[in-house]
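Recall that a protein's primary structure is simply its ordered list of amino acids. Everything else, from secondary elements to tertiary packing, is in principle encoded there. The following example makes that idea concrete.
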Amino acid sequence: MPSTRPPYRVAIVGTGGIAHAHAEALSGLSERARLVAVADVDPTRAAEFAGRFSVPHVFDDPRTLLENQELDLVHICTPPHTHAPLAASAMRAGVTALVEKPTALSLRELDELAAVQEQTGSRVLTVFQHRYGAAAVRLRRLVEAGALGRPLVATCETLWYRSDEYFEVPWRGRWDVEGGGPTMGHGIHQFDLMLSVLGPWSLITALADRRVRPTDTEDVSVAAVRFAGGTLATVVNSLLSPRETSRLRFDFEHATVELEHLYGYRSEHWRFTPAPGHEQLAALWADGDEEDVTSGHRLQIESVFDAWDTGQEPGVSLPDARRTLEFAAATYASAFRGVPVAAGELTDGDPFTRSMDGGALPWQRVKEALV
């Protein structure tokens, strides 16, 4: 969407791997945004990153960056345990924070961010870029219009593979730093997309285990889910799957809609199958004039600028991000307590609002019993 305003001023905090995706996305939006500063605790890495992306200002402390730069948006691309504190600092500096998933390590941290948001009037947005692919936007539009009938059954699978060596990075596979295993750090993108299509969930029954990997967290989880509208779904999050894939399937009354990709999709990764007697819906599905760009950071960042240009609230907002984070927390709570968990059941004071492991890890209890 064309804009006559000056480019938005943007900074990135954290210059590790995911920050490159953010910087490349901003490079593709150069008429609308300027990446003016970066910060990283590793000065050498920050300088190399700044050189690669022609960033004029480099800091070794995010607080100094926020104090010395006039910004519209700061991208938080640091390890998960720093997300909430850095987002709060950005808001207190009057800057919108765009935070890599997970927004926070717990529901309590997220609610604390909501309080800062209320106090400052600034915003926290969460990176859930797969919501913004053209086909996903079209699917939500058709669902909202009722064109596909009621959603009846859904499947959501993040079947990825991570070796033992992957977890040699100090913050990976730790509850206190990463917040959880594939449920929090990997599958969350797919089930967030599922939630954006199906709406509020109502009940989760789950299992989780540490089968192989040298982690404190789970390396696989499986959940059966009931949605508020009655849809039944299964969700699998795995780091143990040599043939990697990300799959979503929605069975509506009048059509099946499927997606299979890995880390980003285009329209070619979707499949639409109308039910007998509803063949005309195939033309409705194919009638999309959106630019077919791989679902990624550029699309979400562009949507933020579009919202600002038109005076709207950008996504993904804290209430939406909380629904997704609560889904993860309820998955853990159900798995480790061995009972179904209803939406809204994890209220303040519940251990699973304070941390995703809830102090109830079955493999930790076994270890303690053996000591």
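Residues 318-337 form the longest helix (20 residues). The two ends are 62 Å apart (CA to CA).
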